[in-house]
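Postdoc handover notes: sequence design on the structure in folder B. Input C-alpha cells:
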C-alpha cells in the first residue's frame, strides 16, 4: 500500500489521504507459433509480467518430450522482467534428427517475488525423420547352424540420419502349436485338427504332438 498526502495551497480548505494498492507481479507464458512444426524449426516462447512490480523468475521445467517420455530437448531459464513488459523467454530448437510424431512441450516458471508458479503446455506435431528398414534373406528357410545372409535397405524420408545405430539379428518365432521359442525341424505329413484356443502343444521330432 502507498499513502499519498498532497500538499495544498494556503487557501485550500481541506486535505485528504488516499490509499493505493499495487498488485504483486504476475508472469504469464505464451507461444504464438504453429503446433505443427518440422524438424529444424525453432519455437519461440514469450513471457509477460501483467502485475504491478518488477520481478525475477527461474524455470522449474522447460522441455520437449516424445509420448514415451524421452527428452529430446531440455534447458534451464532465469531472467528478470519489468511490470507491463513482454519479452522473449526462450528459443527452442527442434532437432533435425527428431522422428515424426507427437511431442509434449512443457514450461514451468517460478516467480521469485512471491513463489507463484506459472505453466504452459502444448502438444506438438513434428514432421521429422520417418525411417524404414527392409531386409531380405537369400533363403526362405534356414536350418540350425546355417549362415544367414541378408541384404538391408534403410529409408529416411526427406531428412537424412547423421548419427545412429542399427541393431539387426535373427530371433526365434513363436509358432502356433509348437510351444514358445521352439524350432520345428521335422513334421510328418499327416492331418491334424487344430482346436480354437488350444495353442499349448509341442511337435516332437517324430511328428507326434504333445499337448
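Designed sequence:
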Amino acid at each position: 500500500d502507498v499513502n499519498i498526502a498532497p500538499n495544498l495551497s494556503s487557501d485550500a480548505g481541506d486535505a485528504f489521504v488516499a490509499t493505493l494498492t499495487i498488485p504483486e507481479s504476475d508472469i504469464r507464458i505464451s507461444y504464438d507459433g504453429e503446433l505443427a512444426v518440422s524438424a529444424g524449426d525453432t519455437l519461440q516462447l514469450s513471457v509477460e509480467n501483467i502485475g504491478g512490480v518488477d520481478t525475477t523468475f527461474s524455470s522449474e521445467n522447460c522441455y520437449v518430450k516424445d509420448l514415451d517420455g524421452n527428452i529430446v530437448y531440455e534447458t534451464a531459464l532465469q531472467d528478470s522482467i519489468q511490470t507491463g513488459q513482454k519479452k522473449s523467454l526462450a528459443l527452442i530448437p527442434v532437432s533435425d534428427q527428431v522422428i515424426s510424431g507427437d511431442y509434449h512441450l512443457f514450461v514451468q516458471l517460478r516467480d521469485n517475488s512471491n513463489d507463484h508458479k506459472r505453466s504452459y503446455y502444448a502438444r506438438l506435431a513434428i514432421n521429422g525423420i520417418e525411417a524404414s528398414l527392409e531386409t531380405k534373406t537369400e533363403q526362405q528357410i534356414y536350418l540350425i547352424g546355417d549362415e544367414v545372409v541378408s541384404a538391408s535397405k534403410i529409408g529416411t524420408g526427406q531428412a537424412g540420419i547423421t548419427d545412429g545405430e542399427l541393431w539387426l539379428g535373427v530371433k526365434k518365432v513363436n509358432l502356433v502349436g509348437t510351444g514358445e521359442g521352439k524350432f520345428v525341424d521335422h513334421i510328418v505329413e499327416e492331418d491334424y485338427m487344430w482346436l480354437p484356443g488350444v495353442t499349448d502343444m509341442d511337435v516332437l521330432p517324430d511328428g507326434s504332438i504333445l499337448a
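Context for whoever picks this up: The mean pLDDT is 80. Don't rerun without checking with the PI first.
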